[in-house]
Amino acid sequence: MDFIKKWPELSLAGELPAVEELTAALKASGPELQFLYKFANQTRSEYIGDEVHVRGIIEFSNICQKNCNYCGIRAGNESLERYRMEPAEIIQTALRAKHFGYGTVVLQSGEPAPYTPERMFSLIEEIKKKTDLAITLSIGVYPAETYREFRRAGADRYLLRFETSDREKFTELHPDENFETRLKVLEDIRRADLQTGSGFMIGLPGASIEDIARDIIFTTRLDLDMIGCGPFVAAPNTPLAGQDELLADKEIYFKTIAILRLLNPRVHIPATTAYDSLFKNGRNRILKSGGNVFMPNLTPARYRRSYQLYPNKPCVDEHADQCAGCVKARLASLNRPLATGPGHSLKK
Length: 348
Ligand code: SAH
Ligand code: SF4
Hints:
Blueprint: H1 7-12, H2 19-26, H3 30-48, E1 53-61, H4 87-100, E2 104-109, H5 117-131, E3 134-138, H6 144-153, E4 157-159, H7 167-173, H8 179-191, E5 195-198, E6 201-202, H9 209-221, E7 226-227, E8 230-231, H10 252-263, E9 270-271, H11 274-278, H12 282-287, E10 293-294, H13 301-304, H14 320-334
Parallel strand pairs: 1-2, 1-10, 2-3, 3-4, 4-5, 5-7, 6-8, 9-10
The structure holds S-adenosyl-L-homocysteine and iron/sulfur cluster.
């Protein structure tokens, strides 16, 4: 496993390991595996420091017209009560983020967002004016000009995963979209001068270790500002319900992030929520093996049960104050300081 030592420098110079080498690292076990995690943690510390950036997420609507096969809030799921938060409530919630000392507020919803782009622009302007926090959007696919308007209104970042780099699988999973469109849209987002985040779901049904290696390479080639990946968790009332066979080697979910860190030394990598659905202290483990961002839930408690993209989502019975307390306790237990400031891309 000594070969992984050169990955951070090589990748910064634009050179990536072959799929075979990555696959070998994904199969690491015993002391080699411990070395992978330790080296990923060390690389994170060396290239971007020990601070953890905290981005509070507001799931402001579960109304969605799309039917991604994996997602618990897809349009076809009729067992859900649908909601949208009023703009005034979204702004109040964003103010909580400021109160808790978070640097960023993330607005996420089904697609399209339940307000016209014009109303979204004024909402973004208002949040910026009232909080001066960094604003990340995770509201899906729009025309290129709309991304530029989001930026002008005050949005700083945008999250849109490519979900899988396997074109056929992408088409299978997304009745509403194709892979080429998704890539074009990611390019539109970047051109709109929004810091761009993307990534994939780890362990989609049928995915092999080589597929994960290819997804890691694909992510790295995108040269992102943020990489958001998390385990696939089979959701009830979706076409993939019951397909919850985890990858045989459960460490793969963690190895993937460690390797992504080695190949993307200066990129923000969050410990995504789905890690805590599947593993006890999953998000803490990610922060110890490459992750540097934490995204506590800010969504008001009464909506949380209706925003389950996947089951066993943590904190559905908690409210934002409890999540804020939990973040502080987590970071203290990990001996990691809470970052101050917005935590913008380190690549700009
Ligand atoms: N509508 C927006 C934002 C909400 S979905 C969008 O699709 O981008 C945000 C992310 O949740 C998706 O990108 C997907 O990767 C993840 N997600 C959805 N269903 C999931 C599941 N069953 N398991 C794990 N992640 C899931
Ligand atoms: Fe809607 Fe996003 Fe879920 Fe797809 S992943 S169904 S676009 S909320």
